[in-house]
Amino acid sequence: MSTHRTPLLDGRTSPAAALVRDHTIYACVMGSRAFGLATDDSDTDRRGVFVAPTPLFWRFEKPPTHVDGPGPEQFSWELERFCELALRANPNILECLHSPLVEYADGTGRELLALREAFLSRRVYETFTGYALGQRRKLDADLRTHGAPRWKHAMHLLRLLAGARDLLRTGRLALDVGEDRERLLAVKHGEVPWPLVESWMNRLAAQTEEAARHTPLPAEPDRRRVADFLYRVRHASACRAAPPC
């Protein structure tokens, strides 16, 4: 994990991009590279969290909740929005917190990473399976319209279901697919007949439902712990802007 920030942009930048450049607390790689599914043509998807200085919230025009860019395949969230989504068990946000490929984390970023378990709760069953159900509907629509699914999407749906099952079983979110890599890549390349893929999906869905009945995860996330962290970050930022505090 790096604690040295490399400038993301030159001096010619928008205010939103400057927030990412100057106030990022956490940055990681997501997508196929984080899942252990990267191939030679895989993109490098970068995700991050920035902390907008507290005085920016004292204006009528608030800082952005997220910034697309400034680099290619880069997306960042402001800390408060990121925490809100994580408390709701948003799959993309929770996976971002558990990326094995952390590129940058300052002291505040490391505090955020230390809070990973506070965001986890039994809500993940509804959010992960709800997202999976939406993707399954899209695959079924592709089958009706084109006679074949989008195999890459099928691969990622299988990955998501397996991750949700294991999270509910163990209380820990692991992104790397491990020994399932070759099977999943075979799905991506259309080398596995759809009935077998469909059977795999149904089996994972049933296993996930069973895991939800016995999960060690708490019923709700630790919202108070997260709120205390956010307050301390905002307070420290305000004190830096207008000492003494």
Write a short abstract of this structure:
54% of the residues lie in helices and 10% in strands. With 245 residues, the chain is α+β, with helices and mostly antiparallel strands.
How many DSSP-defined strands? 5
Percentage of residues in DSSP E strands? 5-15%
Which radius of gyration do the C-alpha atoms yield? Answer: 20 Å
Low-confidence stretches: 2-11
Describe the structure.
This protein is an alpha+beta fold and 245 residues long. It folds into 2 domains: 15-120 and 221-241, Beta Polymerase, domain 2 (2-Layer Sandwich), CATH 3.30.460; 123-213. The protein is 54% helix and 10% strand. The protein has helices at 15-23, 32-35, 79-87, 91-97, 107-114, 116-119, 123-146, 151-170, 181-188, 194-213, 223-241, and strands at residues 24-30, 45-50, 66-68, 74-78, 102-105. A 5-stranded mixed beta sheet has the order 3-4-2-1-5.
